[in-house]
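ping. complex inputs:
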Amino acid sequence: MTTKLETLPTPETAGAGKPTNRRKPKVRESRGTLAFSKAQRSKALMKHAILILAGGLMIYPLLWMVVSSLRPNELIFREPGLWLNSLEMSNYTSGWSALTHPFGHYMINSAIVVIGSILGNLISCSMAAYAFARLQFTAKKLLFGIMLLTIMLPFHVVIVPQYILFSQIGWVNTFWPLIVPKLLATEAFFVFLMVQFIRGIPRELDEAARIDGAGHPRIFLRLILPLMVPALATTTIFTFIWTWNDFFGALIYLTDPDMFTVPVALRAFVDSQSATSWGSLFAMSIVSLLPVFLVFLFGQRFLIKGIATTGIK
Amino acid sequence: MPLFSRPASAAKQSAETPTTGSRRPLRKTGLVAAAAAVVMALSACGGGAASESADGPVELRFSWWGGDKRAQLTQEAIKQFEAENPNIKIKPEFGDWSGYWDKLATQVAANDAPDIIQMDEKYITEYSSRGALLDLSKYEIDTSKLDEAALNAGKSEDGLTGIAAGINAATILANPKVFEAAGVPLPDDSTWTWQDFERIATEITAKSPQGTYGAAAYGTDEASLGVWLRQNGKSLYTSDGKLGFEPSDIADWWAFLKQLSEKKAVPSASEVVEAEAAPLDQSGLATGKNGMAFWWSNQAPALEKASGGDLKILRFPTKTGKADDAGLWYKASQFWSASSRTKHPEETAKFIDFLANDVKAGETLLADRGVYPNSDVRAAIEPKLTPADVKVVKFIDQIKDELGEAPAPPPKGAGSIQEIIKRYTSEVLFERLSTEEAGKKAHDEMKSAISS
Amino acid sequence: MSAISELSSISRKKGKATPEEKKANSRDNKAAYIFLLPWLVGLIAITIGPMLMSLYLSFTDYNLLQPPEWVGLENFTRMLTDARLHNSLGVTFTYVFIGVPLQLAVALLIALVLDKGMRGLPFYRSVFYLPSLLGGSVAVAILWKQIFGTTGLVNQVLAMFGIQGPGWISDPSTALGSIILLHVWTFGAPMIIFLAGLRQIPTMYYEAAKVDGATTLQQFWRITMPMLSPIIFFNLVLQIIGSFQSFTQAFIVSGGNGGPSDSTMFFTLYLYQKGFGQFDMGYASAMAWLLLVIIGIFTAINFIASKYWVFYDD
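pong. complex structure:
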């Protein structure tokens, strides 16, 4: 990570016109290159040991799932440990093709919904958040309160009215009921998240830009958006995960098995009244976790960009 | 376009007592009225989208719950029906049990129910008494070959709203391996009593390694309670939709369970609760941890497969030691029902008739939904059944002459009875309530559940 | 001027708008509503209608299958005597007041540890986030049983020390605890938000503090906490709201029945049972609005209290 910190933009792009004479920004010290003392080294070792132990505990259940997916079905619940006597890939091959379509079909469906949702949330929520965080307008407090209210009502009671709404528009069994609400910033969680982040960005930057003659669209696009990359990355990752895992919405709105998303398809392995193919279920659960995990691995780089790397103030 | 869909029967009622009841309050609360108007306006604009051409192929939606195996079999049957009826297209919709009911309720509320609905005994009265299901007796469905008890299960004052898709009976399944390991002989199920059951189960637990029990606990569904009550001359429900037993009856039932628990004939309270939430293939019977367990007959093949060995289907024990007093009955494992608002009742009925009576459907579906209620189909497909399925068919035939009177259909609200039984069973087993208290409280709660 | 005092002067700066600023602000109306447009459309078209509809339904007897019938306050008076509802409120409050602080503390702690430059950072971050990826997957129920069941991993470990553990998820006295633990286990989301927030704190503050000879603890209380406070506040508000509505975990672990003996019967789980299990959507809607009022009160308290500990740079 030290390498990333070296490519810092200079502050004049942002804080040029500032009246107060502030401390010159410094690059965060690249600790990796510093020579550690012995005490420091053993402290670091301790830290790693604790982290690895804690991490191991954290993901033990997941490891068990991975191992189980490589076991024959009848052994899965007989062995709680992580030891594998043989490698059984059949759960993957049979699970992939057990349903009407190959499992990839459902992953593509999920991907469509996920991509639509991410774009929707990024655009609409950041716009609303900019207004709430930076602009003065009539009924601001009231609207902000209403926005928070919309998160507070348990979703079970709005399902039926919402379903009636979407079914009357003729959107049942399409992806629209899952995507359009995101395009319209109905996930107030993200609006609020971005509001909090924008409020953490020094206002002097806006003011400086405004003195330079920039209007709101320009300030929003050129200044605020680049500075809130961590918030945008957070939104992207969360939207991806939550939409990818969303069961209830997909269950209610997608009736045709061709349209099933991953969580709904996974339930098809579960038969409460008869035998469940646990091996296939675990195998496909892991397959469906892969994209999420990859997105997280890739996306987390953007979490650590942001103000820290621009070093303003 | 009405805001809330009205079932046919409800619409009739409301013609007599005008809709003022539900409209007046709208006027009272201005803001709500405005919001309702918005939704109504939105609802109105897309209303006609779902129309269809008069002579083009008719499309029917068919919805069921179940796993991937059932999906494959059922889709195969659909294909055969479509081959014979090129003018009718069936669109399958399926999912797992719990999601199925949420979805169905939402769809019915939005006037968007599937045409053909796989229905369960637990909910059929709920839906039929509120006018959501079609009276199938008015359409051409041959019921002459169907088993009478199973056919009656789908009848109520709202007409014939469900055709049994399979026949079930409450059974005790025994795992001979557990018996052998403990050195206990299998009981003679035509003469055994509850005392025998207790003795055998206790003996197995005593002679088995730790963690293995003679029997699974009952008390997790209404079937075992139903049998118990019938053997005591009572019933779960009366024909006029009330509870057919007293608090003391259910208290006695729990008292015996507690006695079993104290003798360790059944697993500990914690294990019982865990077993409740466990899927079928992880039940104590399937994993060889229980010698006997209470199951529906159609679950025997799946359990046999999961246990990896042979299972024996037993009759319930009795008080008298006579199998004729076992009080068993044929239960519909599930029903074929139709939405009362289907636009194509004839075609829907035709498809249900195919599912119920056509040998081709039978040869595809086999015993997936229980023993076929149509005796002709049952006989025709027997050579194709697996040995496990044949065992079930034999058991069903065997008890035919010992059956008690068919139980009254569950009243409205019966869907929550099982949950109440479960909850108080764990209260009793964890000794948080005495059996008498639990009996009284559970009875009260059940009474209010089915009367509201 | 030391960095710390400089910082506090910044964060305290809640200057009143000058006349010029006011003039500028009045121009914002048009721009603001343009920025708010997608959200406003969504609010009016998708959110508000169904919300108000549920408010209306809370005054009706509505069984989903037939049109609703106005019953006035009956649903609300019924709630007063509904012992299971009172129990579910107790369960939910316990869950919120133990689960939220615990989860946030763990998330913040791990985020702090992971924020410091160290090797293998992306790896650790991923490991700690992994459990949260699972979401409401059916596999979670199985996993949890493998660990906390009567013959699960925990009890196997305890057995090595000669202790016979209870069935953690099936014993009414420990079941809620195991679900709270499940909640804490998935601390990934607040951790990520904390991490992103930590990244927003300009490093120069820490360097200046070091020059001034501040200890790590002092740095934490005087720099990290105030600078991170908007994000802590966000996590707190949202976690409280989310935990009051918590549904999936209890639903999955208890198989949807809130058992054993209602010990994990969360408010929303009961609401769901009433609405979809017992076809009492009118009552369920009334419950939803009761919950909204409760959450609203706690959120309001949060916002009022935030004036004393949350620092904004505006």
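Chain B has two domains: 58-165+333-395, 170-330+406-451.
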